[in-house]
User: What shape does this take?
Amino acid sequence: MARVVVDVMPKQEILDPQGQAVANALPRQGFEGISQVRQGKRFELEVADDVDDDTLARIAESFLANPVIEDWSVRRVES
Amino acid sequence: MSAAGARIGVITFPGSLDDGDARRAVRRSGASEVSLWHADADLRGVDAVIVPGGFSYGDYLRCGAIAKFAPVMTEVVRAAERGMPVLGVCNGFQVLCEAGLLPGVLTRNEGLHYVCRDQWLRAENTTSTWTTRYEPGADLLIPVKHGEGCYVADESTLDEIEGEGRVLFRYVDGNPNGSRRDIAGITDARGRVAGLMPHPEHAIDPLTGPTDDGLGMFLSALDTLVPA
Assistant: This one.
C-alpha cells in the first residue's frame, strides 16, 4: 500500500471568494503582511501497489478536480 | 402523440429537493411524469429528462461531481448525444456541466452568501427546445436559491457560447452570484440540452410562486415533443 496525496487548488485566474474571505479576516485577527490566500483541497488516498501513476492522474483529472477551474497535483508520500 | 403521451422523466438522486416540484411542473404543462431513480440504468422510454435541484449525494466533492457517475446519468448522457431534450435546474445544471453535456462550471457565489430571492431574468435565446414559448427579450421573474451558482468558463468558451447565441437567460436587476457576463442559463450547440440556476419549476402558479413565468420552459419542450 502507498499513501498518495492529491492537492486540488483553484486556478490562479479563478476568483477564490473563500480564500479572499480568509485573507480579509487575517488583519482583523491582528495578522499583518499576508496579501493573498488561496483555499484548496487535499485528498489522501491509500492505494494498492499495482495502481499506476497514470490511473492516479485520471482519478485526479476526471473526478477529484474539475480542470475547468482547478489545478491538481499527485504525489506518493509513502510506499 | 397526444400531449399526455409525452413522457418527461425527473431524476431523484439522494439529496434531490426539487424533484417533486419538477414533476408537478411536468403535470401542469400537460405531459406525463416519469420518476427516475439515480441507480436506474434505464430511462424507461421517456421523451425528455429533467435533472432537478437539490444537493445530489450531499455535493460533498463538488456540486454535481458525484452525480455525474450515477448509472442513470450514463444513460442521460447517451440519450442527450442522440438528441433527447435534457433540462438541468440548479444542482441539475451543475450535474450537466460536470457531466460534460454543457461547458463551464458553477462555483461558489462571489459574495459567499447563499442567495434565496425572486430574480428577474431576460430571455435571450428563444429557439432552444426549452425556450420557444418566450418572446425574445422577455423579462421573467423566477426564484433563485443557491450557494454555488457563479457560472465560470474561460473567455474563449464564453465568447463561443455568446457567438452561437447559446445564452438562454441573463440576470437583470442584479446578479445574485457573480456569474460571468450575467449568465443565468445556457444551452448546448443543438439547443436541446439546457441548464439554468433559477428555478422555473417554482414559478408555474402565482399561488405558490412569484409568477407562472417558469411554465413556458415545460410547455416549450412539450411543443417539440408533440408537434402541433
In short: The radius of gyration of chain A is 16 Å. The longest strand of chain A covers residues 2-10.
